[in-house]
Structure formats: structure tokens, C-alpha cells
Amino acid sequence: MDDSTLNRNIKEYSLTVGSEVDRVVITAFPNEGDAFVQVLKSAADGAITIVEGASDLIIKCDAVDGSTSNTIIHVFRPTANDATLKEIQITIDGFYTLIPDFHRLETRYILKVPVHIQSAAVSVLATNETSKVDRNGFDDKGKISLVSSAETKVSFVVTSADGSKNQIYEVVVRKG
């Protein structure tokens, strides 16, 4: 997250950091010269310790007129043994439906595509960027070939950064 992503009218942000990140430094300045800004729970250098899991960072602004405004940054730091996906991205010409909607703890999906679709590209991002993801069921171009059958199954095996856990995500592509 950099200065260009902050907007004074937006009061909540989400940030995912890698499992190796144990602290962040936030430098905040008021928009009005007489206001006072503080990053709660920060050290003198602005550093805040980031624990594994979810935590909130709060930037508090006190205006001269006595009003107060908080900006909250919801931070998620995965553990080194996190073997989940953060996102599944699908590239297809036209309409598709992923059932159920993606959630990192849901591991089985159905992707419905029209009958005329011949291939689909599916990519994933691991929650912990240092985790390893293996893909199964893809052609040599990295796509799912949908030519031969009405149903095609692909999978992603996520191995945690420390190698202690594996999680398998399956996507069954159905034509029709």
C-alpha cells in the first residue's frame, strides 16, 4: 500500500502481507495543518508489530474543531503453514459461473461454461505468496482443454511455505 492508494474519504482498507512480514511502518500526515494524526499502537518510528492472522491498524486524526476521524487498515498475515488460495481467476470468452463463490477455505468448485467454449485459462494466487502451487489437468499452454468432454476436472495443490501442509483445490468445468 503506498500513498497513492489512500483517500481521505475512505475510512477502511484491507491489506494482506506475507508470512515473513512481522512489522509495518506507517507515516501519516493530516490534510489540515492544525490537525493532529497518530498511528495507534505504533513505536516512535511508526512501526507496528503484525501478528499472524487478522489485526487492525488504526490511524486517528483529531481536528481543531474537536472532531475525530479514524482510518482502519485490516491486515491479514498468513502463517508459514498456510496452504490456502487467496483467489481463483478465470479467463474465458463470455459468461461463466463459479459455484460456490470463491472463499479460501472452500476447496471444491464447479465452473459452468457455454457448450461452444473450447478452452479456459484458470490462474490462482496463494494466500501466502511464498507457498508453492502445482497445477494438474492443464494442457501444455497452461489452459484447460474443453474439446473432448462435457466435464473436465483440474486441481491446484497448495503447499505451505514451511512445507508442513498441503491443500487441494478442485475445479470441475461443466459445459452446458
Write up what this structure looks like.
The protein is mostly beta strands and 176 residues long. The chain folds into 2 domains: 75 residues, Immunoglobulin-like, CATH 2.60.40; 91 residues, Immunoglobulin-like. A 5-stranded mixed sheet has the order 8-9-14-13-11, with no helix packed on it. Strands 1-6-5-3 form a 4-stranded mixed sheet, with no helix packed on it. The chain is elongated and about 70 Å long. The two termini are 41 Å apart. The model has no long low-confidence stretch (mean pLDDT 87). This is Cadherin-like beta-sandwich-like domain-containing protein. InterPro entries: Cadherin-like_domain. It comes from Physocladia obscura.
Biggest sheet: strands side by side, in what order?
A: 8-9-14-13-11
Radius of gyration: 22 Å
Helix run count: 0
CATH class of the largest domain equals Mainly Beta
N-to-C SSE string, H for helix and E for strand: EEEEEEEEEEEEEE
Measured between the Cα atoms of the first and last residue, the distance is: 41 Å
Q: Tell me the count of domains.
A: 2
Task: Characterize the biggest β-sheet.
Answer: 5 strands, mixed
Q: Structural class per helix/strand content?
A: mainly beta
